[in-house]
Amino acid sequence: MINVLLNHLILVTTSCVADQIINVGCESNGNKIKPAFHASMVRHPYTFSDPNEILRFEHVWTNIGDGYHSDTGVFIVPRDGLYQIMGTLWSTSGKSCSTTLYKNDSRLNYGYAGTEHAQSNTVHALVILKKNDRIYFKNRGSTSYQCHGNYHSEFSGWFVHE
């Protein structure tokens, strides 16, 4: 009987550890994974081809919970909670970088870096999010805007509290 209980305990513990690696939200010792991501814009200059283009930050430094998708530029929230979202966007010489931070299809905040080289703007949002909400930066409506890539412009977010 004790062997059966021990085998069950080991199986449950092992399954939870594996589940933490594969999925978000498995409880182990009362703790859940705390999603976080940080990505940088590589393409330089980052010239917009569409007035409604979602910015892609191609180089992913951190992606705990696998919520950030560099191919689309969208953070898909893996777990309900309070999140801090931040983006720093830089301009290039003669071009402004004007963007909007979105939650799903609703504006959260604007960002604007002027036309002088290396002007920057940092956008913050402390927001309650639900699983599968989408967070992203979008071009603010003109193909004349251009952002400084080369790892200067960045996008990040992290879980703060349940």
Automatic annotation (TrEMBL):
GO terms for cellular component: extracellular region. It holds the Pfam family C1q. InterPro entries: C1q_dom, Cerebellin_Synaptic_Org, Tumour_necrosis_fac-like_dom. SUPFAM superfamilies: TNF-like (SSF49842). Keywords: Secreted, Signal. It is found in: Secreted. PROSITE patterns: C1Q. Residues 30-162 form the C1q domain. Residues 1-18 form the signal peptide. It comes from the Eukaryota. This is C1q domain-containing protein. It comes from Mytilus edulis. The lineage of its organism: Eukaryota, Metazoa, Spiralia, Lophotrochozoa, Mollusca.
